[in-house]
């Protein structure tokens, strides 16, 4: 039965399925239908063609978004575990940026064409291009013709290679740096930001492997929503209710400009520079916070939540004493 199946597929004029194709040999399509080599994908005639196009602006923005994720997580955990009195946080932030930047450059250099910062890619046409393993055809409804390939070359694997380089660079640079400069932290706290990276890198890898296609189409809206939510939470927690209270501290300005950059990144990803002039009016969401802060009663909310927490703790202690 397998021999009859293979011969029937080989004799058919076109290959079945979306991603099965034949190789070009001496200007003619020869061989059996199957998976195309890496860096190639099928055309309309079901012939494997080499990907020679350059990535579009949207593809570069997607790669930039996936490259920013470990950097932002590095910065978050460095700030979280460094403490207010630690003077090593800034140097660790710079080191994390250096690690991710060097990893990105090395990843581009090892990707075809090797030795250049440019890459060649296959254009993304539909969501199924990210999940070719789900579209292996069964012409006789018994045997499956396996044609799993990277139809979005190299957008799928280049992110995984980049994460691997980021992990290697972090393990080479960060422990020595933290051991020398993080004197204000305890022995158990100085390496916690590195331990956190050992957790979130596998999570990011699984996220890219499973949800890469969904992230490709949804990342602009994810950036916009997260930048708005985090900015609103930060301004509420810091009780920033006016422009004057915003510019009093340099750290607040850094946070504001960082959110501006993220917001602009999401806007450019959605508009793709087609309607950029119309969409830039949404670049300053904090103005809405200033206009509505007088109706929010931020201090009352914090006081009420604090009193509720105290009452809950007191009630819990009374119950504990009663049980004893």
UniProtKB/TrEMBL annotation:
Q: Where are the transmembrane segments?
A: 60-78, 153-173, 194-211, 217-237
The keyword Membrane appears for this protein = yes
Look up the domain of life of the source.
Eukaryota
> InterPro entries attached here?
JAMP
Name the Gene Ontology molecular function terms of this record.
ubiquitin protein ligase binding
Any one of the GO BP annotations: response to unfolded protein
| Keyword list, A-Z | Membrane, Transmembrane, Transmembrane helix
| One Gene Ontology cellular component annotation held by this UniProt entry | membrane
Task: Give the PANTHER family listed for this entry.
Answer: JNK1/MAPK8-ASSOCIATED MEMBRANE PROTEIN, JNK1_MAPK8-ASSOCIATED MEMBRANE PROTEIN
Q: What is this protein called?
A: Jnk1/mapk8 associated membrane protein
The scientific name of the source species is Takifugu rubripes (Japanese pufferfish)
């Amino acid at each position: 039965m397998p021999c009859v199946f293979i011969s029937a597929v080989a004799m058919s004029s076109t290959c079945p399925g979306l991603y099965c194709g034949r190789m070009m040999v001496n200007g003619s399509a020869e061989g059996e239908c199957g998976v195309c080599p890496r860096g190639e994908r099928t055309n309309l005639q079901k012939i494997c063609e080499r990907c020679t196009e350059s990535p579009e602006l949207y593809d570069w923005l997607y790669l930039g978004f996936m490259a920013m994720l470990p950097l932002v997580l590095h910065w978050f955990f460095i700030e979280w575990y460094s403490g207010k009195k630690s003077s090593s946080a800034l140097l660790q932030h710079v080191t994390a940026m250096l690690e991710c930047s060097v990893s990105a450059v090395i990843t581009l250099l090892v990707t075809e064409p090797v030795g250049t910062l440019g890459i060649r890619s296959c254009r993304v046409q539909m969501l199924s291009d990210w999940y070719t393993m789900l579209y292996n055809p069964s012409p006789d409804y018994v045997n499956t013709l396996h044609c799993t390939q990277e139809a979005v070359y190299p957008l799928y694997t280049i992110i995984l290679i980049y994460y691997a380089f980021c992990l290697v660079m972090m393990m080479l640079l960060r422990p020595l740096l933290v051991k020398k400069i993080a004197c204000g932290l305890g022995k158990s706290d100085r390496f916690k930001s590195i331990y956190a990276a050992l957790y979130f890198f596998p999570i990011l890898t699984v996220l890219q492997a499973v949800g890469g296609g969904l992230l490709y189409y949804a990342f602009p809206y994810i950036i916009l929503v997260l930048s708005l939510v985090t900015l609103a939470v930060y301004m509420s927690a810091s009780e920033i209710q006016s422009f004057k209270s915003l510019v009093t501290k340099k750290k607040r300005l850094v946070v504001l400009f960082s959110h501006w950059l993220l917001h602009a990144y999401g806007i450019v990803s959605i508009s793709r520079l087609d309607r950029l002039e119309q969409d830039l009016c949404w670049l300053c969401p904090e103005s809405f916070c200033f206009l509505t802060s007088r109706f929010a009663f931020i201090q009352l909310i914090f006081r009420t939540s604090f009193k509720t927490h105290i009452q809950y703790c007191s009630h819990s202690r009374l119950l504990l004493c009663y049980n004893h």
